[in-house]
Design a protein that fits this description.
Layout lengths: L5 E5 L10 E4 L10 H4 L3 E2 L7 H7 L6 H12 L5 H13 L2 E5 L8 H10 L1
Parallel strand pairs: 1-4, 2-3, 2-4
């Protein structure tokens, strides 16, 4: 069985050759970044947490576990289930780099999303 890797990177970094398909998973376009420089294969903003969840979380490490639980529940709702399934299919057949503007990658929604995709 072939296993594909899912990486999490900041969208502002330089693309790594042959690392995988570059997928931006933020709801908003990253401030100050030209679309050409991003070198994206896909912008999948529909899998990002809702504004309400993102605002509640605020990258507070004390809220991280609850954020992950709520985010996973969001991905199962009617608004997110199809885009998440499409991302799952993409990750099942390709190496994928999930890109975010977040500075705190380890507690970002992109890291949680990578975990959901690799389970």
């Amino acid at each position: 069985m072939v296993t594909h890797q899912v990486h999490v990177r900041r969208v502002y970094g330089e693309p790594v050759p042959d690392e995988g398909l570059r997928v931006l998973v933020d709801r908003l376009w990253p401030r100050g970044l030209a679309k050409e420089k991003a070198a994206l294969h896909l912008w999948c903003k529909e899998v990002a947490p809702t504004t309400e969840l993102r605002t509640w979380y605020g990258h507070d490490p004390a809220k991280h576990d609850e954020f992950v639980r709520r985010y996973e529940a969001e991905l199962a709702d009617d608004d997110h289930v199809d885009p998440f399934a499409e991302l799952q299919e993409l990750a099942a057949t390709n190496d994928v780099v999930l890109l975010t503007a977040s500075k705190a990658l380890d507690i970002s929604h992109a890291a949680a999303l990578a975990d959901f995709l690799t389970r």
